[in-house]
Structure formats: C-alpha cells, structure tokens
Specification:
This protein has 384 residues and is mainly α. The protein has 16 helices and four strands. It has a two-stranded antiparallel sheet with strand order 1-2. The two termini are 38 Å apart.
Length: 384
C-alpha cells in the first residue's frame, strides 16, 4: 500500500526522487521486517495483559508430560499477532499487483482462520480438543486445493511461471536437465499436500517454548534468499575461454520466477513477526502461538516451497518439522503393528523431555539442527 502510494510520487518533485529506493526489493524487505518488529513490540504487552484479564489461557493435555501442567493458563492465541505482523507489513511494502502476494496472504490467513476456530473451541470447552480431525483437515485441504487451482490453472500469471508451474524440481539435480513435468491435476493435489503437510508438521512441533518459532524463522530466512534469487534480474559475468553474461538463475540452474521476488517482502515480515513473538515466547513463555499461529506459519512455508519450486527440497529446509511428524507416524505405526512404542512419547521433543533433557537444551539443539539443514538447502543451489 505504501509502495503503491509513494513510489509514483518520485516524479512529482526533485526532492522526492529519493523515493526511487522503493523499487529495490531488499530495501522494502528491510522496511517490512522492521515494521513487523515494531508492531510486535508495540502490541504484544497489551495483548498479553488483555488475555490474562479475560483468562484466555492454554489448556494442557492430560496425557502430556507432567512438567507441562504448570503451563496451564498461560495466554494463548498469540499467533493472532503473528498474522498481523506478517499481513500488515506485506500490505504496506509489497507490490499488491503481484498475484503471488495475494496467494501467500490468502493461504496464510485462511489457515490462520482455521486455527483461530480450533483454538476458540478449545477455550470454550476448556479442553485440548477443538475441531474434529476430519473437519480440520477438510478445511485445510479446501484452502490448499483452492490455492493450487489458482496457481496452476489461472492463466493471468507472468509467462515464466506459466512455462514451469507443472514442473517438479529434484533436490541437488540440475533444473534444466531433470525438471519433471506432470499433469496439472496431479500437481494441484501435490501442491496442496505440501501446504497441508507442512502446516500440520509445524503444528506438531509447537510443544515447547520457542521450539517451533525458531525453525520457522530459519526456514523463512532461507526462503527469503530463494525468493530473491528466483525473482532478481541481476546478471553475472563469467570469465573463461568465452565471456558469457548469465542471469543468476542461469548461473545456479534454478527456475526464473520473476513474480517470486515480491515474496521476499513477505518472508522478511515473517522473520520479523517471528522475532517479535520469540521475545515473549522464549522460555518460560509469556504467551503461546496456538493453532492460529502454527497452522498459518506452516501453510506459508509450504506455499513458499511450491512457489520457488522447492517442494521436495522443503523436506530438508523444514527438516525439524518433518522429523517431528515422522516420529509421530513411527510411534503410531509401531504401536498398532507390534504393541510397542519406539519413543517414550511422541512427538520426539517429548521423548527427550522424558529422558531428562532440560527444555531450553532441547529447543536450542533443535534450532542448531534447523540451521544446519537450512544451510544444506541453500548449498544445494551450488551443488547442482
């Protein structure tokens, strides 16, 4: 919105020529991050007090670790401000004529609304059970499939996206040689699966103070780099026997997706909102994000993977979330098939809790793993 209003003013007077800086994505990304931080630090203290007065507190599962019982009553639904911290700065600093911006905002707020409804039912019933499982998944798939249809069937996008939208990229393999084109309806279902799967993976990880938001910010920072690389028009000169001028995409052998550049602003807002939330969510937490936060953040990461053609690589970039999900699947399958449990408790962060690890130790070590996996994901661009 500010971008739309201010950028045209650069021609109105000579002293306004400095507004030309708004054309640069890195400047607007920094502005979005700082705006998100300002909103977080300005609103969270008031928000937490308001939740405490209204006794809107977390309901703890009876079958969870006993150490969590003391967290009962901690203000929850802090993810509502995470949404504000992502949406408002994106509105202010991104190009609202970009369809990718509307897609990411639509999916993020859509999953946030589902999480808000789930959290509200839990609080109203004073129970850890909110929406019924099939209702919750059904709504998630409805939003994800709607986004998938829009991205892969609407023909109003830039030609570079239309040419590759049905193509799957394989990690650590050359895009130009090994990109696999599949039927559009298969890709729509696949894209929806990535969005829904990542959303619920983040939701499963949100079990300790600061555990989920750290890897979310790390993955968001990774996609910030990837969206900028996919959308930038910067050229590189390579010297050798023949002097060639290559775009960044040609040099790294990644798809050129011009519209993805504006998603850098959203990623910056996501990171800023995450930092602002972590200030109050770090151990011991003053506020929890709730499903309104975890579902929306996960859906955003899933769609970013789709829009940058890193659907399969997201298993690495979001590896902590998928490790948590795999631990739950393994636990359930093992118990049903053999009657035995692989872990003392799933998701796996509870297993380490019951083994005697202190909560901050688990959190920091999972963050370290997330950083390592993010670096591997970024490194894959050069290993092609």
């Amino acid at each position: 919105m500010l971008y739309e209003w201010l950028y045209p003013l650069r021609f109105e007077a000579d002293w306004l020529s400095w507004l030309n800086v708004l054309r640069y994505i890195p400047f607007r990304a920094i502005a979005a991050l700082l705006t998100s931080l300002f909103l977080s630090f300005a609103i969270y203290p008031w928000f937490i007090v308001k939740l405490q007065r209204r006794q809107i507190g977390q309901v703890i599962r009876d079958d969870g670790p006993k150490s969590h019982f003391s967290k009962a009553g901690t203000p929850t639904m802090g993810g509502s401000l995470l949404l504000i911290g992502m949406v408002i700065p994106t509105f202010l600093w991104a190009d609202l004529g970009n369809a990718f911006v509307w897609a990411i905002l639509g999916v993020t707020t859509g999953f946030g609304a589902i999480g808000f409804l789930d959290d509200s039912l839990k609080l109203r019933r004073k129970s850890s059970r909110g929406l019924r499982g099939w209702h919750k998944f059904g709504l998630q798939w409805l939003v994800a499939l709607g986004a998938g249809w829009f991205l892969f069937r609407w023909n109003g996008f830039h030609p570079d996206w239309l040419a590759i939208r049905d193509t799957v990229a394989f990690p650590f393999a050359k895009w130009s040689a090994y990109g696999l084109v599949i039927p559009w309806w298969v890709y729509v279902a696949f894209a929806a699966f990535v969005i829904v799967g990542t959303s619920n993976a983040v939701n499963l990880t949100d079990g300790l103070d600061g555990l989920a938001i750290g890897p979310v910010m790390i993955a968001g920072s990774t996609y910030l780099v990837m969206t900028y690389l996919a959308g930038t028009t910067l050229k590189l000169a390579l010297e050798g026997k023949v002097l060639r001028i290559l775009t960044v995409q040609q040099y790294l052998d990644i798809p050129k997706i011009e519209a993805a550049g504006e998603l850098t602003i959203f990623c910056a807002a996501l990171v800023g909102a995450g930092v602002g939330f972590l200030w109050y969510n770090t151990f011991p937490a003053q506020v929890f994000m709730g499903d309104v936060g975890s579902l929306s953040l996960g859906a955003a990461l899933g769609l970013l993977a789709v829009l940058t053609k890193n659907e399969l690589l997201s298993v690495v970039i979001c590896g902590v979330f998928f490790m948590e999900t795999l631990s739950v699947i393994t636990q359930v399958a093992s118990f049903k098939l053999t009657g035995k449990r692989v872990f003392q408790m799933a998701p796996i962060h509870h297993h380490f809790e019951l083994k005697g690890w202190a909560e901050p130790k688990i959190i920091v070590r999972f963050w370290i793993i997330a950083i390592m996996l993010a670096l591997i994901g970024l490194g894959s661009y050069k290993l092609r």
